Automatic annotation (TrEMBL):
Phylogenetic placement of the source organism: Bacteria, Bacillati, Actinomycetota, Coriobacteriia, Coriobacteriales
This protein's name: Elongation factor Ts
Keywords attached to this entry: Cytoplasm, Elongation factor, Protein biosynthesis
Annotated InterPro entries: EF-Ts_dimer_sf, Transl_elong_EFTs/EF1B, Transl_elong_EFTs/EF1B_dimer, Transl_elong_Ts_CS, UBA-like_sf
Gene name of the encoded protein: tsf
Keyword field contains Cell membrane: no
Species whose genome carries this gene: Senegalimassilia faecalis
Metal-binding keyword on record: no
A Pfam family hit: EF_TS
Gene Ontology CC: cytoplasm
Length: 288
């Protein structure tokens, strides 16, 4: 049996908000497996889904850069050793430069970005220069670009969370102030509410199956007849979709409407159609 340490109990508690003793019991039952321990707590109704950003530790920033036509965007994460450098304007300028390099190269990932050049300077040289100027170990752990009918971004906490949302747009200029105001609101929603997917159709099949298994186990604990258990599980899955699918979530700025309803309202006001198609949400250090 795996040794259950105080730090493991603390980590599980931070991830789930469950009590200390419940966390310890769950870890013992799961033989030290953190993910299984979360499921044990959820089955017993002692915890909601684990907080994704619980292990984010690195200093640095997440930076987004949007093309002038607002139809493509890049997001990069740049890490450093101290918060002092992470909040430094020179450091932010390097992150923005790397974001512009990613956008110019249409870099799908960090390997593609590291192989690229920008304004006559290789990305590797830009990183080396940052290390020399700032005097810290600077790392570029990830980068990507997205393209769509329209994109909008939001940065939270000075670079602690970066979001890019993609849209299908008809009859509206995605670079217009009206669309970008709407798009930034939706990106802010992603930062605040941390949805699993843009729509219920885009929730990964394995996530749906995992949630179903949890809800069926919860229903079985109730001791009610099987047909009632099935209804309980279905109802909880529906609640999961409403809480975790971006378009079905209550809009943070106006909880009386969903993000989908806000989208329909914005499209009507802007004289066209808008559909949310996806998003990228990166929290600083979550890859560490």
């Amino acid at each position: 049996m795996a040794a259950i340490t105080a730090s493991m109990v603390k980590e599980l508690r931070e991830m789930t908000d469950a009590g200390m003793m419940e966390c310890k019991k769950a870890l013992v039952e799961a033989d030290g497996d953190m993910d299984k321990a979360v499921d044990v707590l959820r089955t017993r109704g002692l915890a909601a889904a684990a907080k994704k950003a619980g292990r984010a530790t690195n200093e640095g920033t997440v930076m987004t850069v949007v093309a002038e036509d607002a139809k493509s965007a890049a997001v990069v994460e740049l890490n450093c050793e101290t918060d002092f450098v992470g909040m430094n304007e020179k450091f932010k300028a390097y992150a923005e430069k790397l974001g512009r390099a990613a956008l110019a190269a249409n870099a799908a990932d960090v390997e593609a970005l590291k192989a690229a050049s920008y304004e006559g300077e290789s990305v590797e040289d830009i990183l080396t220069d940052a290390i020399h100027v700032l005097g810290e170990n600077i790392q570029l752990p990830r980068a990507t670009t997205v393209a769509a009918g329209g994109v909008a971004t939001y940065i939270h906490g000075g670079g602690k969370i970066g979001v890019v949302v993609t849209f299908d747009v008809e009859g509206i200029d995605p670079a217009s102030e009206g669309f970008q105001t709407y798009g930034r609101d939706v990106a802010m929603q992603v930062a605040a509410a941390s949805p699993v997917a843009a729509t219920r159709e885009s929730v990964p099949a394995e996530v749906v199956e995992h949630e179903k298994a949890i809800y069926k186990a919860q229903a079985a604990e109730s001791g009610k007849p099987e047909n009632i258990q099935e209804k309980m599980a279905t109802g909880r899955l529906e609640k999961f979709y409403k809480e975790n699918c971006l378009t079905e979530q209550a809009f943070v700025k106006n909880p009386d409407q969903t993000v989908n309803q806000y989208t329909e309202e914005a499209a009507k006001n802007l004289g066209g159609s808008i559909k949310v198609t996806g998003f990228v949400r990166w929290a600083l250090g979550e890859t560490a």
